[in-house]
Design brief:
- By secondary structure, the protein is α+β, with helices and mostly antiparallel strands.
- 29% of the residues lie in helices and 21% in strands.
- Strands 1, 3, 7, 10, 11, 14 and 15 form a 7-stranded antiparallel β-sheet that branches. The protein has a 5-stranded antiparallel β-sheet with strand order 21-20-25-26-28.
- A hairpin with a 2-residue loop joins strand 10 and strand 11.
- The protein is elongated and about 120 Å long.
- The protein starts with 5 loop residues before the first strand and ends in a 15-residue tail after the last helix.
- The N terminus and C terminus are likely disordered.
């Protein structure tokens, strides 16, 4: 009677071959077996025995074959390629068609799955090195207590008998620790929702991990420093202007005078949750040979995040030498029976999972490592945050300098116009500029309406009055790229201009880097109400169109003003990105720390 090795298991077992001199040929079935046409088919795999291998069957059975686990009939470690034969009978239908009855010496057994496994090399039957066994995991919906592994024998008529029961070893099997999901529930979903982000069109695992680790040193709104205004107007007709010591205040160049806004650095409190730096520490090669690098701990970590109790995580990290079920009990006690997640850890403990082989050795090596490494990781993350803040500060200083330079240009432009109109501006001290008894060649006029009919088609649009008689320039304001006005929209739309003659109205719009332009000449004696339509042009054509006005003083050159406008537009886009990033980080904060109140992190920006 031929025999074969057949394993009956619940979830996982360690396969131990007999002594080296007892290796016998292993067969799946006899050639005259009446069930040979319906028995579960075999799957074959070829592996390199000189390295660690993991073989997974079609129905989820996993064979973990460490380097050096196979031996030949001489007791020598096999270093050639090995052929693995695997059959899985995990359903009742497969068992019936294969006549895999579940009886042992005439007594019925309760089964939860059967497999056939064999290993050969160059046609030679192999055995398993009992000092370096393979590990087998058989999938099951629910693990049951008391299950054992039986060796099966099959006679020529296809009858099965299950003998030599062996208690299942609940040793945990590690996987590549970097393949595990050590993120809070829902965190990856929030990252996906935030795409695209910076230069990332989609979320990679490295990006998602990096964003999570950043939260270890996240400082709330302090990521945005100094909101630099990019909208400036000539102050003369601005009713909100203020003059101090014969100079306009900074707010005088804005449409509405506002108090200086201060962005407080709101630092969210992280003590109520799991520190992302802790996760960065444990998701490393150092913990590869502990239960941290197992699917079982991955499942526990998902619940640990929900508890928001770092003491639970530390319970596992401080007891790597214990069986996992023992640590599960300690975690449950850490939470207490009144905690909502207490039963989760009690149920984990009931699984009676033990430890990774040689766990004690690695636990001893890791003593003191976590605390030191946590400080190191936090320091590294803080340094990265400091680098980011330095970049932000530098860009803000650059933007602030552009703003100050432009205000100086507006001051020169207004001063030039006023002096050209016939006033000694410096002696008037900016206050009584409208007073005077000499005949005036200029007057204050209301611009009834300047419209760029297709303005919404463009990213940005600018309109300029050019008073050729005095070689003066005036940039109009807008809130929608369509309607343009002088000074404040709600303060009369008045501006100073010559009484008679003609002037030029120039509008330039940009879609990306492509410019469009329209130019109209208008009579200063007629009501100022004009419509323009921008036509696609080129940079060269625009330069040619405004060339006649480039002989004006520096402050009255259209091209010079457009240079400032381009810089302000870039700053606006940068600020929008920072605002979006801040909103994005707040959502990630909520996902990472579900128990934290977080009103500081969720505060509304004062823009």
């Amino acid at each position: 009677m031929n025999t074969k090795t057949l394993l009956f298991a619940l979830l996982s077992l360690t396969f131990l071959q007999c002594k080296n001199n007892a290796i016998t040929n292993t067969f799946k079935l006899h050639e005259n077996d009446p069930f040979k046409n319906t028995i579960v088919p075999s799957q074959t795999f070829t592996i390199d025995s000189k390295q660690d291998n993991v073989v997974e069957g079609e129905n989820g059975t996993v064979l973990v074959c460490p380097k050096g686990c196979f031996i030949n009939t001489k007791g020598e470690i096999v270093e050639d390629n090995v052929t693995i034969e695997l059959s899985e009978a995990l359903s009742i239908e497969d068992m019936l068609l294969s006549n895999l009855t579940t009886s042992s010496e005439g007594k019925q057994l309760e089964t939860d799955g059967m497999i056939y496994f064999n290993a050969t090399s160059k046609g030679e039957q192999l055995g398993i090195n009992e000092d370096n066994p393979i590990h087998i995991e058989i999938p099951t919906k629910e693990k049951k207590a008391g299950m054992m592994a039986y060796k099966g024998t099959r006679d020529e008529k296809g009858n099965m008998n299950w003998i030599e029961p062996k208690a299942l070893d609940n040793y945990l099997v590690t996987v590549d620790i970097h393949s595990l999901d050590f993120l809070p529930p829902g965190f990856e979903t929030e990252v996906d929702k935030g795409m695209p982000y910076k230069n990332h069109k989609t979320a990679t695992q490295d990006l998602t991990d990096s964003l999570f680790y950043q939260l270890a040193v996240y400082k709330g709104d302090s990521r945005i420093i100094d909101n630099i205004d990019t909208q400036y107007i000539e102050p003369y007709k601005n009713k909100s202007k203020q003059v101090i010591k014969d100079e306009y205040t900074p707010d005088s160049y804005q449409e509405h005078s506002t108090e200086e806004s201060v962005h407080e650095s709101s630092t969210p409190e992280t003590t109520c949750g799991i520190d992302p730096a802790s996760i960065k520490v444990i998701k490393s090669e150092k913990y590869q040979n502990t239960f941290i690098a197992t699917r079982e701990f991955e499942a526990r970590l998902k619940i640990i995040f929900k508890t928001c109790n770092k003491a639970v995580l530390e319970t596992y990290l401080n007891n790597l030498n214990l069986n996992l079920y023992e640590v599960d009990n300690l975690a449950a006690n850490t939470l207490g029976e009144s905690n909502h997640y207490y039963e989760n850890f009690v149920n984990f403990a009931k699984q009676q999972l033990t430890k990774v082989q040689q766990a004690d050795k690695y636990a001893e090596l890791l003593k003191g490592y976590y605390g030191k490494q946590l400080l190191k990781v936090k320091s590294e993350l803080e340094m990265e945050q400091e680098k980011l803040m330095k970049v932000l500060k530098k860009k803000n200083l650059e933007a602030q300098k552009v703003a100050e330079d432009y205000k100086k240009l507006l001051w020169k432009r207004e001063k030039y116009r006023m002096e050209t109109y016939g006033f000694n501006w410096s002696e008037t001290g900016w206050i009584n500029i409208d007073n005077g008894t000499l005949p005036k060649s200029w007057e204050s006029k209301v611009t009834e309406g300047i419209y760029v009919d297709n303005g919404q088609e463009f990213d940005r649009v600018y309109c300029y009055y050019v008073f050729t008689s005095i070689k003066s320039l005036y940039r109009l304001n807008t809130t929608n790229n369509i309607e343009f006005y002088a000074v404040n929209y709600d303060q009369g739309k008045e501006m100073l201009m010559p009484k008679d003659g003609t002037a030029i109205l120039i509008s330039i719009g940009y879609k990306g880097q492509t410019p469009s332009i329209d130019i109209k000449e208008f009579d200063l004696n007629l009501p100022i109400n004009y419509h323009l339509t921008l036509a696609t042009s080129t940079i060269e054509q625009v330069k040619e169109a405004i060339k006649p006005f480039e002989k004006y003083a520096q402050e009255n050159k259209i091209n010079k003003d457009l240079e400032f406008m381009a810089k302000f537009y870039q700053e606006e886009q940068r600020q929008k990105e920072l605002i979006q990033e801040t909103e994005f980080m707040r959502k990630l904060w909520t996902a990472a720390f579900p128990c934290c109140a977080g009103p500081q992190a969720a505060a509304t920006l004062e823009y």
